[in-house]
Structures are given as structure tokens and as C-alpha cells.
């Protein structure tokens, strides 16, 4: 499990988290989790890593004690617990979830992508680049219409370049013109 703990820490460090010394010391109290990391920059999370607990009661006491200590020092860091290996029973999970966001990784020897998926809520969002997003919406519309692009379509697209009021006026003129044409067709009959 030590290599799994290191793999989780490597993914966290790649996302800008800073590995904390072991054992974790908060306000003079020592907490012996398998590993810990803290968010830097935009993330303020305190991430704890625990291998599958052979003694779930010990893990719940450890997390409960850390939670109380963080409350006493008025910490605002959200706490997440990455739990490696088999997930403990429902009662233990309920107690753990009272003190931290629990992110289980039940896969044996997870690869970095599996770890990233399991702890995705901790990972920074990556937005696509402007060039990856494709063409602008109006160009997309005209491309999709293709050969069926009429002069009316072009007028509405050009109006959209100006703004919503121009689109409304252009559409109103188009509808008025269609109604007048229908009225004149009826008048000729």
C-alpha cells in the first residue's frame, strides 16, 4: 500500500498540492495518517491519505481528533480523506464522513488516471483553449445551414453581430414582410 500512497501523493503534487511531513502535527498534536498534503494557490484543502484500515476504529478516532483540533484553531481548511483499499463498513464510513469528505479508491495498485478520477473533486478544472473550442457560434450556424443559407438567414446573422435588439427588429421586419406578401397574394385572388 505504500506505493499506492506515494502514487496518490504524486497526483496531488502534480495538481499543486504540497506534501506535509509525516506524522502530521497540528497545534502541537500528532496525527499519524499514512500521508497528508495541503492545497496551495486556489485550493485550501487538507488531504489525508489512509491505506485500508485494519483498525477502522483507530482511523475514526484519529480523524475525529484532527477535526476537533482544526476546530479549536479555527481552521477553514476543508478536510478530505483518500481511503485506499477496501472501504470499511457503513457505520465506519458514516462516522468518517461526519469529519471529512471521503474519497475511496478500492482499486488495487491504481494508475494515475484512476487516482485522478477518484479524487477529481480536488483537481483544478482545466478549461479548453480558445482554439480547441471551435469556431464562433454565428459561423457555426452558417456552416450547419450550408447551401440552404438564404438571404433571410444572412440578414439575421448580420443582425446578430450587432446585438439582440437588431435581431428582434430584423425578425419583426421579416415577419411583417411575409404577412404583407401573404395579404397581397390573397388580394390578387
Q: Would you write up a description of this structure?
A:
By secondary structure, the protein is α/β, with parallel strands linked by helices. The protein folds into 2 domains: 121 residues, Trna Endonuclease, Chain: A, domain 1, CATH 3.40.1350; 58 residues, no CATH class. 48% of the residues lie in helices and 15% in strands. Helix 6 packs antiparallel against helix 7. The longest helix has 25 residues. 19% of the residues are buried.
Question: How much helix, percentage-wise, in residues?
Answer: 40-55%
CATH topology of the largest domain: Trna Endonuclease, Chain: A, domain 1
Strand order of the largest sheet: 1-4-5-6-7
Whole-number average pLDDT?
A: 85
- Per the principal axes of the C-alpha atoms, what is the gross shape? elongated
Main sheet properties:
5 strands, mixed
Order of helices and strands: HEEEEEHEHEHHHH
Amino acid at each position: 500500500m505504500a506505493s499506492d500512497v506515494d502514487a496518490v501523493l504524486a497526483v496531488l503534487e502534480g495538481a499543486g498540492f504540497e506534501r506535509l511531513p509525516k506524522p502530521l502535527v497540528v497545534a502541537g498534536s500528532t496525527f499519524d495518517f499514512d500521508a497528508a498534503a495541503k492545497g496551495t494557490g486556489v485550493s485550501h484543502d487538507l488531504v489525508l491519505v489512509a491505506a485500508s484500515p485494519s483498525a477502522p476504529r483507530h482511523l475514526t478516532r484519529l480523524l475525529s481528533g484532527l477535526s476537533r483540533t482544526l476546530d479549536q484553531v479555527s481552521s477553514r481548511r476543508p478536510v478530505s480523506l483518500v481511503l485506499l483499499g477496501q472501504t470499511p463498513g457503513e457505520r465506519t464510513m458514516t462516522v468518517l464522513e461526519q469529519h471529512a469528505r471521503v474519497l475511496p479508491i478500492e482499486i488495487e495498485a491504481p494508475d494515475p488516471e484512476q487516482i485522478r478520477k477518484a479524487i477529481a473533486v480536488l483537481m483544478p478544472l482545466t478549461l479548453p483553449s480558445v482554439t480547441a473550442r471551435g469556431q464562433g457560434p454565428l459561423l457555426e450556424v452558417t456552416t450547419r445551414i450550408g447551401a440552404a443559407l438564404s438571404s433571410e438567414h444572412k440578414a439575421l446573422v448580420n443582425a446578430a453581430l450587432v446585438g439582440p435588439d437588431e435581431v428582434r427588429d430584423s425578425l419583426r421586419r421579416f415577419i411583417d414582410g411575409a404577412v404583407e406578401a401573404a395579404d397581397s397574394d390573397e388580394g390578387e385572388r
